[in-house]
Amino acid sequence: MTAQPFKRALIDDLLSGRGIWPAVPAIVVLLVVAVIPFAVLLSLGFSEIVASRGVIVSQELSLAPLKAALADPLYHTTFGRSITLALTTTLLCMILGFPVAYLYLVGNGWVRRIILVLTIAPILTSGIVRTYAWIVILGGRGVVNTALMDLGLISQPLRIINTPWAVIIGMVQIHLPIMILPLIAVMSRHDRRLDEASANLGASRLDTLRHVILPLSVPGLGTGAALVFALSYTTFVVPQLLGGGNYLNAATMIYEQVVYALEWNKGAVSAIILMSSCLVVLVVIAGLAHLGSAWTRASRT
Amino acid sequence: MTVLVQPADALAGARPRAAPVIDIRGVVKRFGASTVLERCSLSVQEGEILTLLGPSGCGKTTLLRCIAGFLTPDDGAILIDGRDTAPVPVNRRPVGVVFQNYALFPHLTVAGNVGYGLRMRGLPRPEIIRRVAASLATVSLTGFEGRYPSQLSGGQQQRVAVARVLVLEPRVLLLDEPFSALDAKLRASMQLDLRALIKRLHITAIFVTHDQEEALTLSDRIALMRAGRIEQHGTPEEIYDRPASVYVADFIGTSNFWDGNAAEGAVTFPDGQAVPTALSGAVRVLVRPHNIDLAPAGTGRSGWTGIVRSRRYVGALLEYEIEAEAGATLRAVSLKDEAGAALASGDRVVLRLRSPAACTVFSQP
Questions:
Q1: Which chain A residue has the Cα nearest residue B67?
Q2: Alpha carbon of B119 to those of A51, A203, B110, B111, B249: distances in Å?
Q3: B256: exposed, middle or buried (Cβ count in 10 Å: 0-12, 13-18, 19+)
Q4: Would you place residue B340 in the very low, low, confident or very high pLDDT band (cuts 50, 70, 90)?
Q5: Chain A partners within 8 Å of B120 (Cβ)
Q6: Which of B31, B67, B93, B120 is the mutation pick for testing A, counting most A CBs within 10 A?
Q7: How confident is the model at residue A299, as a pLDDT?
Q8: I need a surface site. Which of A160, A183, A228, B287 has the fewest CB within 10 A?
Q9: Stretch A284-301: mean pLDDT
Q10: From B103, B147, B168, residue closest to A197, measured CB to CB
């Protein structure tokens, strides 16, 4: 290829928006807001740093901070708590979300519209607002306790707020739409004639749900689970506000290390552990979804 | 309105009739304000292949879905082996459905699809494997057990769909346009194969199709439907040779219609011959293309004169379009090696009915 046509083609592409050019602004933004900070984070995490009042005095490459963190029992309990919380949230979202998606599948136009509105509306509200709403609902003089006391079921308020229970309730409510949406996407593509065929072959509704609808929903469950896990594992607002400041998960720990203790070094190490462990779990989820949907890999011969 | 000249059931009375496997009695189905099925009655005998034929929207698929139990009739009853199916839920009916798009489970292999119904019945695994293998053998798909539906051709998918219901030995096989997804050449051979298979296994079957040729090929009997009603029910020969209405005549095969006036038991066709009819007044005469004999003009034969407008080869047949006197356009066919088959476009011809009695006469709508 000679240089001249290549150059003309390049200018042509640039002017007409062909090739990679339309993606260039996004690439630049990603470079500035994601890749460079990520590189800084890595360099902070894999270094021994001497800082004074938050200003780095000296920095040299070292694995010592990472090793120290991995041996620290506080990290074990915090990350263990984070993973447990995220997996519990993911599992509860799957259990609660699937019936909603099933209702969407079998429902008529109105049922479908109502489900869509109810699913999307919370996403349009800020997570912080929704979390504060839970404080109102679950608080000592909140809706739940008032109702239970008025009914005479309890004599003094239950302690829900500032407990792990409140955190789980809030986490599930915040993340449920993220699980439902990919499931609805699968359901809206679902061929109802498969359900008729299943019934015609002798299956009850439950059989059809178990042997046809559920297996065909695996790709949606996988996507939903990956999204919910990634978001709930790294979440900060809900544990901070509903856990009453004493519920330490990975994100709240990083926040304290960086904002209060000004330990950028430790914060970076925690962030690296958080990211890499998240990635490991996501790979496992993707692998399970992959195994559970073998048919999608069968190609036409 | 159309009048039944020769009732379709005139011959049926002579045939010995056992209790029908399927007995459809006055079934009505409405969707909102529109009535899709209006008092449909029909019966299918043991081992018989019946086709519900009609244009889209005539209610044929709705009737099929009522039999399968996917829809509940608003009135009337559907009996299988003399028992009302109304209280029988869809998954307990002795009916196997082959869907238009086959509705194979994409997440299950061929063996998984065929074995699905047996699994739902809780059969032990070794028996499922044995019966799946036997069923796949009947549709010549041995060795395809481990494939997914997406790895099969359209014809193979159809055979899996058939094997999947036949393995359960249903009393009735329902097939909803099972050939519509196949290309023309494959369709013809699959039609013959499927008919042979159904006959060999002596299964009672109901096909749904809008393709009249398919109906004529496959069926022992045809029920021609129109706007939610069964217009005529009979053998392919009865429907073709003695259509009950202009609509049926027009739907099945190629038809020539000629309007005339009948009196004293006959209507005089333009070729001078008398077509017998019990009707009087304005009538419409149906003449099938093979009932028209063509001869070159000027050979001294009497008849209805006309001009050949076009000629078309249809395999061993020649199909002519003739513009007859008084502006009528008629279609005639003749065998290629018959005398007079050398007619060319523009030739003057004399038309004569081969058999006036083979014409069907309707009162004019």
A1: A200
A2: 68, 9, 14, 11, 47
A3: buried
A4: low
A5: 201-204, 207, 211
A6: B120
A7: 55
A8: A160
A9: 79
A10: B103
Within this chain, do residues B194 and B311 fall inside the same structural domain, yes or no?
A: no
Contacts of A204 in chain B (CB under 8 A): 91, 120
What is the CATH number for B56? 3.40.50.300
B15 in a structural domain: yes
Residues spanned by the domain of B340:
256-363
Beta strand segments in B246-363, E = 256-263, 266-268, 274-276, 281-287, 292-296, 304-314, 317-324, 329-335, 348-353, 360-363
Query: Do both B175 and B276 map to the same domain?
Result: no
Q: At what angle do helices A164-189 and A73-106 cross, to 10 degrees?
A: 40
Q: Which of chain B's residues have a Cβ under 8 Å away from the Cβ of A299?
A: 150-151
B288 in the same domain as B227: no
Under DSSP, is residue B246 helix (H, G, I), strand (E, B) or coil? Answer: helix
Determine which of B67, B92, B116 to mutate to test the interface with A (most A C-beta atoms within 10 Å): B116
Whether A202 has its CB under 8 Å from any CB of chain B: the answer is yes
The residue count for chain B: 365
pLDDT at position B10 = 42
| A192 shares contact with chain B (CB less than 8 Å) | no
**pLDDT of the residue at A196:** 96
* Nearest by Cα to B208 from B192, B219, B196, B197: B219
Listed residues B251, B268, B302: the one ending a domain: B251
CATH of the domain at B325: 2.40.50.140
Selected for mutation to probe chain B from A195, A198, A200 (highest B CB count within 10 Å) is: A200
Superfamily of the domain at A65-297? MetI-like (1.10.3720.10)
Q: Global pTM?
A: 0.82
Q: Does A199 touch chain B (CB under 8 A)?
A: yes
On whether both B285 and B210 belong to a single domain, the answer is: no
Instruction: Give yes or no for residue A14 having a pLDDT over 80.
Output: no
Q: What is the mean pLDDT of residues A53-68?
A: 82
Pairing between β-strand B204-209 and β-strand B49-53 as defined by DSSP bridges: parallel
DSSP A202: T
> Domain map of chain A by residue range?
1-45, 65-297
Kindly state whether residues B188 and B238 are assigned to the same domain: yes
Q: What is the pLDDT of residue B72?
A: 94
Find chain B residues with C-beta within 8 A of A191's C-beta.
101, 103
CA distance A295 to chain B (A): 5
Q: What is the 3-state secondary structure (H, E, C) of B75-102?
A: EEEEEECCEECCCCCHHHCCEEEECCCC
As for the ipTM of the complex, it is: 0.82
Instruction: Please tell me whether residues B34 and B178 are part of one structural domain.
Output: yes
Q: What is the mean pLDDT of residues B308-319?
A: 83
The string of pLDDT tens digits covering residues A214-240 is 999 999 999 999 999 999 999 888 888
Indicate whether B245 belongs to any domain: yes
pLDDT for the residue A294: 80
Q: What are phi and psi of B70, to 5 degrees?
A: -70, -25
Task: Indicate whether B198 and B74 sit together in one domain.
Answer: yes
Structurally, chain B folds into a number of domains equal to 2
Which residues from B are below 8 Å from A201, CB to CB?
91, 116-117, 120, 164-165, 168
Domain assignment present for residue B298? The answer is: yes
Query: Would residue A162 be called left, alpha or beta, if left means φ above 0 and alpha means ψ between -120 and 50 degrees?
Result: left
Name the token pair of A281.
Answer: 């779990």
Confidence of residue A157 (pLDDT cuts 50, 70, 90): confident
Is B207 inside a domain boundary?
Answer: yes
Instruction: Let me know whether B291 and B269 are in one domain.
Output: yes
Partner-chain contact A295 B108, CB within 8 Å: yes
